[in-house]
């Protein structure tokens, strides 16, 4: 369980960057953390990982205060940042040096993930492309079996086949004891993967709903022509037509268009959220 209670955070003497933020995340789910540049996504992830500390309020994971950074806490959280430096050693050497910090690290799983990502364990990391290095970190992170896996822009640098591999591997690695928090601008890369959508704007949570609720309440239309205005929740111009979000009157689950949803939430969070209280 991740719990942030009334968290305020500021950089030096600036005004609060995160203000009175409350958030609870439970194991067994994949959370998509969405937001514009500067919304506070990376800062929030660092709070959860214990890399930044609240000025007030508290942040706990599985009962540990994150700012204490105890070994028992740290072995249960793994962060894959957007930017990173890796040593000029082969993949097996990296695993031997770093697996000791994770008591549940599974070498067989690590080898399996490397094979699925088509990575040669005997090659040096310095010879890999950015996308290959990213796949290596994902493989190692999953093999730690940490209960919290944080991924910041994990699909940056991945080609289309690798993105498909990523979704398949991540979905298969989740179990009821683990949670994953994925922060991204590439919202379409998360479709059919995440269980909850969390949107951050100006250091505040403006939307937090599970995919089942969203697909049951809303339908996403590529062309709104012929749909009555009173059924339209959000609309935007798109290549000579209007696309948007409408009331789901059929009662059947619809495919969630994360890009449309994100745009609608950012532009009119009150109207989007109000639809869930009807």
* Name of the CATH superfamily of the largest domain: P-loop containing nucleotide triphosphate hydrolases
Q: What portion of the residues fall into strands of 2 or more residues?
A: 25-35%
Helix-strand sequence? EEEHEEHEHHHEHEEEHEEEHH
- Major β-sheet profile: 6 strands, mixed
Average pLDDT number: 91
Q: Order of strands across the widest beta sheet?
A: 6-7-8-3-9-10
Number of strands: 13
Q: Termini, distance in Å?
A: 29 Å
Poorly predicted runs: none
What is the C-level CATH assignment of the largest domain? Alpha Beta
Number of helices, counting only DSSP H or I runs of 4 residues or more: 9
Query: What sort of overall outline do the alpha carbons produce when their principal axes are compared?
Result: globular
Question: What is the CA-based Rg, rounded?
Answer: 20 Å
Structural class by sheet pairing and helices = alpha/beta
Structurally, the number of domains stands at: 2
The helicity comes to: 25-40%
Q: Which CATH architecture of the largest domain would you pick?
A: 3-Layer(aba) Sandwich
What is the CATH third-level topology name of the largest domain?
Rossmann fold
Describe the structure.
29% of the residues lie in helices and 27% in strands. It is of the alpha/beta class. It has 2 domains: 2-202, P-loop containing nucleotide triphosphate hydrolases (Rossmann fold, 3-Layer(aba) Sandwich); 211-277, no CATH class. The longest helix is centred in the middle third of the chain and has 14 residues, at 130-143. The two termini are 29 Å apart.
């Amino acid at each position: 369980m991740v719990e942030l209670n009334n968290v305020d955070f500021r950089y030096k003497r600036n005004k609060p960057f995160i203000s009175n933020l409350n958030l609870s995340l439970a194991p067994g789910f994949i959370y998509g953390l969405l937001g514009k540049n500067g919304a506070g996504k990376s800062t929030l992830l660092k709070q959860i990982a214990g890399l930044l500390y609240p000025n007030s309020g508290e942040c706990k994971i599985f009962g540990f205060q994150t700012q204490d950074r105890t070994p028992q806490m740290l072995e249960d959280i793994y962060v894959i940042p957007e930017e990173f430096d890796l040593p000029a050693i082969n993949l097996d050497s990296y695993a031997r040096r770093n697996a000791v910090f994770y008591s549940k690290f599974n070498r067989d799983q690590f080898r399996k993930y490397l094979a699925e990502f088509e990575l040669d364990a005997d090659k040096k990391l310095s010879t890999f492309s950015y996308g290959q290095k990213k796949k290596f970190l994902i493989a190692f992170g999953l093999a730690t079996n940490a209960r919290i896996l944080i991924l910041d822009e994990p699909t940056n640098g991945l080609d289309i086949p690798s993105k498909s591999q990523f979704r398949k591997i991540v979905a298969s690695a989740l179990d009821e004891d683990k949670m994953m928090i994925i922060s991204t601008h590439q919202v379409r890369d998360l479709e059919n993967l995440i269980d909850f959508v969390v949107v951050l704007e100006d250091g505040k949570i403006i939307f937090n709903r599970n995919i089942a609720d969203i697909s049951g309440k809303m339908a996403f239309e590529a062309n709104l022509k012929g749909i009555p205005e009173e059924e339209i929740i959000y609309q935007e111009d798109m290549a000579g037509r209007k696309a948007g979000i409408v009331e789901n009157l059929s009662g059947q689950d619809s495919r969630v268009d994360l890009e449309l949803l994100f745009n609608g939430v950012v532009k009119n969070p009150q109207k989007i959220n109000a639809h869930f209280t009807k």
